[in-house]
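Example 289.
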Amino acid sequence: MRLHLRTDYWDDRLARAEFQAFIRRIHHLDFMLWQDMGCWDPLYRPFSYFAGDRLVASTCLYSMDMTIQGERRRVAQISGVGTLPEFRRRGLNRRLTEAALEWARPDHDFVYLFADEEAFPFYAATGFRPVHEQFARFRAPAVRPRPARQPVDPADPGQLARLRRMAERRAPVSRDLGVLNVELLLFHALYPLRELLSFVPELEVYVAFARDETGLRLFDVIGEHVPAFEEIWPFLSEGRAETVDFQFMPDRMDLDGLEWLPLEGNGTHLMGEFPLESGPFVFPFTAHA
Ligand SMILES: CC(C)(COP(=O)(O)OP(=O)(O)OC[C@H]1O[C@@H](n2cnc3c(N)ncnc32)[C@H](O)[C@@H]1OP(=O)(O)O)[C@@H](O)C(=O)NCCC(=O)NCCS
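Predicted structure in complex with coenzyme A:
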């Protein structure tokens, strides 16, 4: 059977629909809301083998705008990787990965990805190395709560447009390792963070966090100015002391006494020179494609 390597085909409506069906089948993910809300991102670039109209193997490369140690850098993330079961172990995804890496090489500093455990041997075979992320934990004091947060519904077009305007002007949540991609942030707002976003008018920031009996996980703070933790904590606090786990590097939070703990389950892999590898680091939650 003849296979055709195709890339950059989002303008072909049928091929894009075939890609979406493929992602639903392999990863059980539905991108329709992201598309229907006008967030589909050409920086998310497919490399796929088609047999006629049928997509049989695919990988995507997301060009990421990040701040790394205070400098704006362009890096790449691999995601949306899969081969139909009956086409596996024929070298198809290895060749697609090579094509994607060759495309990225001239203007991306390094490549990273988050892998399912069963795919670790594939990524080892294609030249990626596993790395260990750590997250920062802070024991936040009891403070008097300031209950002025407003709920946000990102699936409301007007609210999504306001969030987009802020995302376009945002300061990266971290100077050490911050992400700036607007459409990717909106993806997170529409899917994993959909119920977790609120707006703090006094600080003019959106916050995304979740709380359970063990404490609070802070996913992102989106604003033109990133407030220090001390400023933002009263708007998140329920009045008692609590642990706060940061899902991003908290260098802008102005905190002492952070504890760093292993972050399990991300399956993070890298290729190329990554400047933060010698110390504790975590990719921002909203940098996952
Ligand atoms: C992982 C996956 C994309 C690999 O696709 P593929 O087209 O079969 O990969 P290739 O044939 O190009 O494999 C290249 C090399 O990777 C390694 N490899 C691939 N699949 C492997 C497996 N299941 N076990 C061990 N090694 C594997 C081998 O070294 C292989 O070379 P070889 O066949 O000459 O020994 C495919 O198995 C898949 O779709 N899995 C389910 C979805 C998934 O896990 N996606 C990744 C999520 S992060």
